[in-house]
Amino acid sequence: MTIKVLIGSDVVVKRIEELAKEITAGGYHELTTITVLKGAQWFSEKLRKELKLSGVEVNDMPMRVSSYGKGTESSGKIKLIMEPMGSLGGKDLLVVEDIVDTGITMDFSLKYLQAKGPRSLGVCTLLNKPARRKIKVKIDYVGFEVPDKFLLGCGLDYQGKYRDLPYVGYVDEAHIDNEGGK
Ligand code: IMP
Ligand code: MG
Predict the structure, then answer these.
(1) φ and ψ at 86, to 5 degrees?
(2) Can you tell me the distance from the alpha carbon of 80 to that of 37, in angstroms, rounded to the nearest whole number?
(3) Which pLDDT band, with edges at 50, 70 and 90, does 77 fall under?
(4) Is-contact 128 97, C-beta < 8 A?
(5) Does the C-beta of 50 come closer than 6 Å to ligand 1?
(6) How many whole angstroms separate alpha carbon 59 and alpha carbon 174?
(7) What is the mean pLDDT of the segment spanning 138-155?
(8) DSSP characters for 107-123?
(9) Is the overall model pTM greater than 0.85, yes or no?
(10) 3-state DSSP call for residue 82?
(11) Each residue of 80-103: pLDDT tens digit?
């Protein structure tokens, strides 16, 4: 499978530094990140490191949701696989995602988290793919707007692989096997 580079690793690193500065400018002293596993783990680790360097106290309370059944299309059915551990009430929460695509996962996550009574609830996504949006969701911080291609790297996987690639890449649609499972 040939992978083409969409966003190079230097550009990604620099943008994550900028995002941390934008978030820090929001005036947080203490921030609870909600890393949406597994995809956002790669991005979240780097973002939290930068936030800490900017003097923000960060505590990560990951959650895991699953929407994809098979292949590269969202099934539309979200399952909460792991709840954030501990109390979220009264906290400044920042949901950290790898990509917002249809918006179904983010919509589900935001409704779930809002019900926990946080002081504030923000959203930071490394990638935003607006072309395929099905549900409108508010996003406070976006790394990159991306075209309607199936992407990998920077936490994004294809069939469980390629998450660790330090750049955002894509494969030609013709090479994607939609029956393959994910
Ligand atoms: P949504 O619910 O359709 O917005 O999808 C959100 C999730 O689908 C993301 O957190 C990713 O894990 C996955 N996803 C969406 N687009 C891509 C892609 O292009 N490559 C890999 N995973 C994707
Ligand atoms: Mg994700």
Answers:
(1) 110, 175
(2) 11
(3) confident
(4) no
(5) no
(6) 42
(7) 97
(8) HHHHHHHHTT--SEEEE
(9) yes
(10) strand
(11) 999 999 999 999 999 999 999 999
Strand partners, 121: 93
* Whether the Cβ atoms of residue 5 and residue 167 lie closer than 8 Å to each other: yes
Ligand 1 pocket, 97 CB below 6 A? yes
| Ligand 1 contact, 105 CB (< 6 A) | yes
In the residue annotation, 101 being an active-site residue is answered as yes
The residue from 92, 98, 101, 157 that is catalytic is 101
Q: How far apart are CA 176 and CA 96, in angstroms?
A: 27
Q: Whose CA is nearest to atom 10 of ligand 1?
A: 99
For residue 40, the CA-to-ligand 2 centroid distance in Å is 5
CA 167–ligand 2 middle distance (angstroms): 16
* CA 100 to ligand 1 center in whole angstroms: 6
Q: At residue 181, does pLDDT exceed 50? A: no
Name the closest-CA residue to atom 21, ligand 1.
156
Considering every ligand atom shown, identify the ligand nearest to the alpha carbon of residue 78 and give its number: 1
Give pairs for 20-24: CB < 8 Å, separation 24+: 20/47, 20/50, 20/51, 20/53, 20/54, 21/50, 21/54, 22/141, 23/47, 23/51, 23/56, 23/94, 23/122, 23/124, 23/141, 24/51, 24/54, 24/55, 24/56
Residue 9 CB less than 6 A away from ligand 1: no
